[in-house]
Amino acid sequence: MKYYVLDRGDELSVNLSQTFHKLAFEHGLRLDAEYPDIVVSIGGDGTMLHAFHTFIDRISTTAFVGVHTGHLGFYADWKSDEIPQLMSLMESHANGERPRIASYPIIQLDIIKKSGTLSTLCLNEFTIKSVDGTVMAQVDINDQMFEMFRGDGICVSSPSGSTAYNKSLGGTVVHPSIEALQISEIASINNRVFRTMGSSLLLPAHHHCDIYSRKEQNLMLTIDHLSIPVNDLISVRCQVAEQKVSFVRYRPFPFWTRVRNAFLD
Hints:
The chain is an alpha/beta fold.
């Protein structure tokens, strides 16, 4: 089995990474930074987002597993003291025992600017905000105008990302088995001139939405943990991607258990 480790960079995560490499060598796993079968993320959810984008061109053949060393690890199945147990199960995997693979929907983004285009994938969420004022944007659903938005911004999240920024905006938590994306408003202006839905919208996999910039404005686009300043945006198309991200489940860890552990326990 080929593996790669990406850690958060703090002392604990670096030490765990070194421990993992040592155990991997002893168990016959092979380090491969280009074509790993499994990428181990050691840190928090931000580390997993970094791992996803590092191997974004190989998500169809690469699976991820998370080791939690931060305050909240929604994507992490393992604690910092469970590295030997994880390694033992990975060795069994390498010897032919097949673990469960959980595949989650992600978002396809097609960003069109006057200066060019960018197509990419998003694991958690995409947001559009203004740098120096309110955002003015037209939102179309399936090529039909839906609303004219004015406010602080718009958040488009995947089901696995529905527990992140989307939840703080009042959006609903969506199980990752549901292939959908969610559109949530960020502090929309609603009066006699500007009207929006005021609630989040859930679009199924065969639908898409387009967000059109409707004035000259300096915008900040975020794709998970990445921020991109844009002053010439034309539109952004958002839809459920054909690809999915895969996580190795060496032991049961149901989604609703993750939600309870993250927000209630």
